[in-house]
Amino acid sequence: MLTHLASTDRSNDDDDLAYTERRVLNVLGPEGSGLSYSQIGDKAASDGKGKPLKRTTIQAALDVLSDQKLADGITGSGREPSLYWRTESTIQGSLK
């Protein structure tokens, strides 16, 4: 069974993102095309913008992105993976 992640309300200004948070955001796709931690790491490793990201770094970035409502996801249970994607407002806005 999958459960929806809870997000707290924070500023939606993605200009304040750290480098690793922006990297994670840039590899995420739209809702419906969720990526697992492993897939996010693989895409970040092949983006040509630095060293591969560790799982803990990806998790921390996703926490910040979720708090700022720039990304969302579902937490998997059992054999189902957790999946993450950009929010609709992020896709419609401009990313740097």
Query: How helix-rich are the residues, as a percent range?
Result: 25-40%
- Helices, by number, come to 4
CATH superfamily: Winged helix-like DNA-binding domain superfamily/Winged helix DNA-binding domain
- State the total count of DSSP E strands: 3
pLDDT averaged over residues: 81
Descriptive report:
- By secondary structure, the protein is of the alpha+beta class.
- The chain has one domain: Winged helix-like DNA-binding domain superfamily/Winged helix DNA-binding domain (Arc Repressor Mutant, subunit A, Orthogonal Bundle).
- Helix content is 38%, strand content 11%.
- It is built from four helices and three strands, in the order E-H-H-H-E-E-H.
- The chain has a three-stranded antiparallel β-sheet with strand order 1-2-3.
- Helix 1 packs across helix 3.
- The chain is globular.
- The N and C termini lie far apart (35 Å).
- The N terminus is likely disordered.
